[in-house]
UniProtKB/TrEMBL annotation:
InterPro entries: DUF4464
Keyword Cytoplasm among record annotations: yes
Highest taxon of source: Eukaryota
Compartments reported by the entry: Cytoplasm; Nucleus
Primary localization class, coarse: cytoplasm
Pfam families, per the entry: DUF4464 (PF14713)
Function: May be involved in spermatogenesis.
Name of the protein in its database record: Cilia- and flagella-associated protein 299
A single Gene Ontology CC term: cytoplasm
Keywords for the protein's UniProt record, in alphabetical order: Cytoplasm, Nucleus
Originating species: Leishmania braziliensis MHOM/BR/75/M2904
Length: 295
């Protein structure tokens, strides 16, 4: 995936493109870039053992129901596919040098970014173990944090409460666009609602103890004063920049895209765009994508 040359964050009147300047790629040949990068990583990372003893495999399988990255724990059930699992360990720097998502995944799979990466067979076995073992996900009994909360005075919280159960069960994927002032500076972000639900205590938001605000860890974050831009993939969405469509959020499971450019004639297949008037924010837009679940 090429790093974006620009991104679009909505404004009340018209979209604005934020230009980014990046140095040219080292090579147009993916094979050559792969060799160069493998060589660089070989000097900065421990080599992966060429042989694995039976005991080490058994030890990995006993602990592979959960993986750890960047100090945070991820259950293997958080990833819909093996590719999603590899993507969680791919960085923006990897994509800049390689300019190819598959090549970046291959480097992770080969162990050049750490030897504790599950193979495809191990990943599938871990998912099966997590579904049937003590870590079995209990979606049917998952707590709906908005239940019983009076949020009628907040259009945003009302909209989020209506979507919570559908998002938690994976039937709906929702991206929020929020624009507001934080610390006296205007900021905006495209937020993966499902990812925030899984990683934060949303009861505090529905109880109005905290205000939902943009974060640098969101899908895309922009500070309008400092012109600081961040973008991140989530377990559900991959952030892409298209020369004609602008910023695109690609759903990792059904591969459909949400077009968040406000000038786009359509938000995408099985997608809707809803403007939410809310006095607590400068701007709120909700993008809903009805997902295609694979049995």
């Amino acid at each position: 995936m090429r790093r974006p040359r620009g991104t679009i964050h909505e404004q009340c009147c018209s979209p604005a493109a934020v230009p980014l300047a990046f140095p040219p790629p080292f090579s147009r040949c993916i094979g050559l870039r792969l060799c160069i990068t493998l060589s660089l990583w070989a000097h900065s990372h421990a080599h992966r053992p060429t042989e694995k003893c039976t005991s080490s495999i058994a030890q990995k399988k006993n602990s592979m129901a959960a993986t750890e990255r960047d100090g945070g724990n991820h259950n293997v059930l958080d990833f819909n596919t093996y590719e999603d699992y590899l993507d969680q360990q791919v960085t923006g720097e990897d994509l800049f040098y390689l300019e190819d998502q598959d090549a970046a995944r291959r480097i992770v799979e080969l162990g050049y970014k750490g030897k504790d990466v599950l193979s495809r067979d191990e990943f599938e076995a871990a998912q099966q173990l997590a579904r049937t073992g003590p870590l079995k996900r209990r979606e049917s009994t998952e707590i709906i944090t908005s239940a019983g909360k009076d949020v009628s005075d907040s259009p945003l919280l009302t909209a989020l409460a209506k979507r919570e159960a559908l998002v938690r069960t994976g039937k709906l994927a929702t991206v929020l666009f929020l624009r507001d002032y934080v610390g006296g500076q205007e900021v905006s972000a495209y937020i993966d609602y499902g990812h925030r639900l899984r990683s934060e205590n949303f009861e505090a938001y529905f109880n109005k103890e905290k205000k939902l605000l943009p974060k640098r860890s969101d899908l895309s974050y922009y500070n309008w004063k400092t012109h600081t831009l961040f973008y991140n993939n989530s377990p559900t969405f991959q952030v892409l920049a298209d020369s004609s469509l602008g910023l695109v959020m690609k759903h990792k499971r059904d591969r459909k895209a949400i077009h968040v450019d406000p000038s786009s004639p359509s938000p995408g297949e099985n997608c809707s765009r809803t403007v939410v008037p809310c006095k607590d924010y400068l701007q709120v837009v909700i993008y809903d994508h009805v997902t295609r679940r694979k049995n």
